[in-house]
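Schema walk-through. Below, the input block comes first and the output block second. Nothing else is stored per chain. Lengths vary across the set, and this one has 848 residues.
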Amino acid sequence: MHFDSPTDARPRSHRLRSLQRRTVATLGAAATLLSLAAHPALPAAAAAPESVAEGDSARFTLAVLPDTQFYSRYANDQFAPRYGTNPFAVQTEWLAAHRDDLNIPFVAHLGDVVDRVNTASEWMAADAAMSSLEAADLPYSVLAGNHDVRNSSDDWFDTDYTLDEEPYLEWFGTDRAEGQSTYGGSDPTGFNQYHVFEAAGEEFLVLALSWRSSDATLDWANEVIAENPTLPVILTTHSLLNIEADAVTPKEEEYGLRLWDQLIRDNDQIFLTFNGHFHGSTQLTKTNAYGHPVTEVLMDYQMAYDGGNGYLGLLEFDLTNNLMTMQTASPWVTWKPEESLTSYDQPFLEQPNQQYTIDIDFAERFAGFAPDWAAGAADQPSLVQKARDILLDGFDGPDPIALEQPGSRDDFVAAEGTVAHWRFGDEPGVVAEGQVFEDIAGDADLTRVSLEDSGSTTAQLDDVTVTDDANPFSADGGGVCFTDSDQRDSRFSYLTSPADVPATTNTLENGYTIETFLKMDESWSAEANGWSKAIVRSGNRSELPGMPWSQWDYTASPAALGISNLREFQWTEVPTETTKGDRTAWSGEIMVDRWIHVAIVGDPDTSTSTMYVDGAPVLRNATDTLGQSINSGSPWIFGADWVDDSARNGWNGCIGETRVIDHATGPDEWLTARPDLSGLTTTAPSGTLPVGTEVDSIDGSGYPGATVSLTGDLEGTTAVDDDGSWTIPLAATVSDPDRYSFAVQQGFGTRLSGLIDGAFRIAAAATPGTPGDPDEGTPGDGSGGGTGGGTGDAGDDTDTAADGRPDGDLAFTGSTIGSGLIIGAIVLFVLGAVAVMAARVRRGRSSV
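--- output ---
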């Protein structure tokens, strides 16, 4: 901003300091409000969802245990050393302890009890956890997920297994199920079972179907329902409903549609389904053959912090008020020692599809098969609120991390120390041989290697394309895709950087952050794509001085990010101290056809390299490592592995924008973070400006790269400079006596900050023969509706109008105060003071 004021004698520095003080106060208040809006507080008695009915009613809680595989897998080598127990054990102990408090009649496990079917220690951990429910006489159902069977291929069904070789049946077979008070029976394989539980005056049937139910099993399930014709049915299985890449929208799968067609649609008794397997949470309501709703619910948190962080479902049935209310809660989080808590440790998940209420008129929904259905006694308070009270009692945890989608391609946090930043979100289409993708941070541009030079005799030109499909939290808005890669016929393509630029020579010995967005194609298979790589620092580790021999990957590249035959992300690196050999980090199972954000953070303070998948650290990370050994003259390559000094085993899927930083960073600096727009300020004038003032620009501070817009009586746009300052020149200098109002806002595309509203007035010259101008007001106090300084009108409501008189309801008369009145006021003041003194003397004497 620039304006010339010929009559304001106050030093400019004084005016600026006054404005800065007001700006800081305003920004502080605004930041507090924004923080509360983004991260609602969770007090000890946090309120239940607003849709929960008050007062006693016929209520009960169905507890749901989604995939526990990582709790079982890491119970002994990760959880026990760190915590003394594991989330699975704490979940079941908590349910047993509070079964009466929450009126829990039944617990449903959704499968993937363990991670590695042939590892006895995992079954032992699962056995110990589920035994807590048995000890408390709290009945449950359990079913096998794909990790619980020896062959989980999609074309294998439960009738194809050799039953006496299946560990699941040894640990959770029919003999154990028969011990449940609710047990109704099992199918001939023993993998599938049903239970009938009573709650709130009515009975419900739970049908638990394991991984890949055969036609024979579905026939058995239909018979079970037919033999219990008046019971509402809750179907639990491992795989039914999937979720889209936006982590919100439901997505139907072929197998789920098979269950719908052969079991759910024509059985009106099935009103609710639960499944795990697909990472995330969503729901879908469909209409069955009878015209009635069926709600399908997905719940699986295995990719969250601590392998799921102990989250389970607590579904309150309110039969009196016709409501089902879901809460996603973690007894594990509130059990943890306070000093171990992180921002990932939230006792409740409250995003869409994690906390919600479903309206269902139970009597009407069940009338077709149970015309006499009626709710029991209304004798239970809100169990949703009670669960919150129990879990939050005494809990004091950190605020959660909230992600926000970008508003434009520039809407990402620029990180100091960026070594390379590759982006692919250009025009979609086939990538030509020799086509270049810019490194926007340096000179390590990526180039598509020609078919002739690639080493693949089966690759085709259209195997590499640019797509405008992207992870919703990537500002780039696109990716480069490698299709039809298949190691069986050596079909692959790749991109390469130059070999002699800083990005290829940097050993990252002071730490690093490597982050990317990856997606596997839905055609991915272990046979064709197992152990393929997406991003590689090429070379041959066997040629590194001091590299110890190993059976695996001895001639592979020094560092690479890829996928195993079990669809686990693997990060492998040889640290700068080469004699330490290979160091690896591993994720859990990754879903195909879904964009995933991956960050690898090398921390020199802890000598670890930690993998984060969609923001959550994995359980198996690299230790005793620092930086990366490299082969001189070896480039980065994208889209293929590099072993034995040549490319091979291409990535079957897409790679999004990728960035390398030369130090360890946290989530607030990752590509999934957004620039903070709350710091917008302006030093625009406010209040009433002296006669003759000229304003030719408005300036202030903001986030570098953001677009600042000025609207109202003053207009213009500009980009914030690298130093955080901005200036908008006005199209014409403002000098006419008048009131000028405006609003300032900064943003990246569609993501915008709050508005800063402001106004100022330029005074008019006094009319000849009238008194001098009264007080012309003071600059605005920043108390307007915006988030920065320079807002609001002139001080109080005493703006000076263009005709030289104060604004307001009363006209300015032009009268002046005479000297006689001034003398009279002084005399009255003196007499009043004397009277007060006399009164004090009298009081003092009376107290003696």
